[in-house]
Amino acid sequence: MLFVFAGLEAFAQDMIIFKDKTVEEVTIVEVTPDYVKYREYGAPINSVTFSIEKDYLSKLIFESGRVIDMSISMMNDERVYAGQRERTIKLDVSGISSNYTFISYEQAVDPSTSWEAGMIFIGAGFENQNVVSDPERAMGLGLNMGYKFKRSPNFYMERMRYGHILRGAYVKPNLWLNVFNYNRVDYDHPPDPVTFQYPSTRQSATAGTLMIDFGNQLVFSDQFLIDYAAGVGYGFTTKYVNWNPSNYGFLGGAGSGTPYTFSFTLKVGYLLPNK
């Protein structure tokens, strides 16, 4: 029993654990948003007090057994963003003029990451109504899934945080997969003398790509947002390309002359109220 109580007495003190795993036995006097003040363990109350910046520390362990994780900053502390809307429905306005409608849903995972998934309705655009401007008359569906990683700042300032949990510049790996039918226009034969249209056959196509988007998302009044991004990747398509490299959501892909793919999105969204 004496040995047990002696052991408890030995560990009944505050400890500072540094990020390099160094441990100091101290008496913690005060914890501020930026510093930790302490005295040497066993020193009298009126002795000198030391201060150390929180950026050096990993954890604080108090005599009572309470542990404070010092690695959590305002940038990634979810409590800072409490009450903000974390979900949004978005519409790609650039796709409507390119013969498709792209609707997506985004959900924040934490302050620095989120996931996004959407559906592409190929043929649900303005060009599909005009045979001259859109002789392919494509119709089909597609899926898109991605995961956003927000850009970390080059340097940190005190009390720095994101303006909104869904706001900020990001990198997003994402996957596209489209299936559609289209008119393959044969420009090697003369057009019809009456309709002046080239002969065409209805064919099906599958296209997909793995891309990395580089973009930025702006949030206004915790209700609306604008998301713009450009992407580059590597993909494929079974579509016969003679004049139109679009796979409805992205351009290019092996089978169209180059395996590289490119995309541009301009989305507007509405932030859904929290549950």
Describe the structure.
With 275 residues, the chain is mostly beta strands. It has two domains: 2-69, Roll (SH3 type barrels), CATH 2.30.30; 81-272, Porin, CATH 2.40.160. 5% of the residues lie in helices and 52% in strands. It contains two helices and 15 strands. The chain has helices spanning 2-11, 93-96; strands at residues 14-18, 23-31, 35-40, 50-53, 57-61, 67-69, 87-92, 100-110, 113-122, 139-150, 168-185, 200-220, 224-237, 251-253, 258-272. The chain has an eight-stranded antiparallel beta barrel. Strand 2 (23-31) and strand 3 (35-40) form a beta hairpin. The radius of gyration is 29 Å and the shape is elongated. The two termini are 54 Å apart. Mean pLDDT is 86; it is low at 4-10.
What does the radius of gyration come to?
Answer: 29 Å
Low-confidence stretches: 4-10
Strand segment tally: 15
Shape field:
elongated
| Biggest β-sheet strands, sense, barrel | 8 strands, antiparallel, barrel
Strand order of the largest sheet: 7-8-9-10-11-12-13-15
Mean pLDDT: 86
